[in-house]
Amino acid sequence: MTEQDRTRWLALYVLCAGSLMIVLDTTIVNVALPSIRTDLGFSETSLAWVVNAYLLTFGGFLLLGGRLGDLFGHRRMFLAGITLFTLSSAACGLADSQNFLIAARAVQGLGGAVASAVSLSLMMNLFTSPTDRAKAMGVFGFVASGGGSIGVLLGGILTGTINWHWIFLVNVPIGIVVVLLSLKLLPTAHVAVPGRIDVAGAVSVTAALMLAVYAIVNGNQNGWTSGQTLGLLGGAVALFIAFLVIESRVASPLMPLRLFRSRNLSTANVVGVLWAAAMFAVFFLSALYLQIVLGYSPLQVGLAFLPGNLVMGVLSLGFSAKLVMRYGIKKPLAAGLTLAAIALLLFARAPVDGHFVVDVLPAMLLIGVGAGIAFNPVLLAAMSDVAPEESGLASGVVNTSFMMGGALGLAVLASVAASRTTSLTASGEGHLAALTGGYHLAFLVGALFALAAAAIGLTFFRTSDAMAGAHAAPVPATEGSH
After folding, report:
1. Among 388, 437, 454, 461, who pairs with 337 as Cys (CB 3.0-4.6 Å)?
2. How many CA atoms, within 13 angstroms, populate the side-chain half-sphere of residue 244?
3. Is the pTM of this model over 0.70?
4. To which H or E segment does residue 273 belong?
5. Whose CA is closest to 464, among 336, 330, 335?
């Protein structure tokens, strides 16, 4: 391996470390929520904002973050995002009041959005040969798909052995190392993009995304047919229509609509929404089943996810790339998503008095296999037809799809579970039996999401050049050349 190759792979690992911190933060908090509630005196309603504040800014600023990377340099914006994320993580860890923690979480989401929006494009431009790109996407795929369940594991360990403050403070030393190594390893070259920031487009789409996320994450509490929820969703749709009108008329649009002529990018966004919705069913619902129904401690919940994480890691970091190189994108994607659907179906039959080895472990292992081989093809397909000067934007679009899919999927599945539980309770079922019945129906819906994603990917992904998009080689330019 040449020195240049060694530097590229080290740069990939640094990018993955930064991305892992951000992905972890979407789930690591969940295990610690009961402790945070007790310590800071949150109500059941206000506690949700510890999660929602992060989701709102993260989901809202992904597109703008990607475009800023294309305009001002992906390396520069990655460093800015990670620095902001690290500083706000320290603020979260030191928080001693509700408002301070929620505000710090919102800033954390902003930093995470900017860094996430450009990390994938940096990786795609580091690796341009089909073989290397498939391997690199395998590593990134593991981080993106496994990070959520690793968050549950790490959250359980830190909350159970120290206290909840450390789920945030652990980011600080990692963030410092990532920034220092990024300064040394990440290439300063990027494709120069002419034009200015599309302020009207940025404001309209960011507001649309934030309104949509706000409506979704509060849908269960306020009611899906309530005036507030419908009004917010209507406002989000109106703003998004305004955004599309603006993008069709301005000289330097935030999101050139021609991007969606790329069949693979458009298909990957739809698959990403459904896939994220299915995966969130695993992260959240299985953790609730283990903790509430089976009585696991936070640490035990985290350890329950470990076998699936190990399988996911092994497959993502080597086997997935070999599958893509041999069979292309469609077959590994469909196989992985189908296995994930089967895992969700297994969870849909887990009983009130379930046993780990019989009722939990098989599903966790199948999820590990499915996610390990499916995530890589989705990412490769999404970025395969995109020109280098728009790779940051395309990365932001893909990340937005996953984020919105996760938020929407979680809201839908939680609503389905709550409705079924209420119905079973009214018919005379015991508390735990009613809860389990609610989870069963939600797992079943999650399995349908995964199967739909498999069918759409198998039908619509274009196979030519989809595997690696070797034409998308980076064009050398200095960081300040624009």
Report:
1. 454
2. 8
3. yes
4. helix 263-280
5. 330
CA 212, chain centre distance (Å): 17
How many CB atoms within 10 Å of residue 142?
A: 26
Q: Give the pLDDT confidence of 414-441 residue by residue, as tens digits.
A: 778 888 988 899 998 888 999 899 999 9
Q: Scanning the structure block, which residue is given the tokens 């069709």?
A: 248
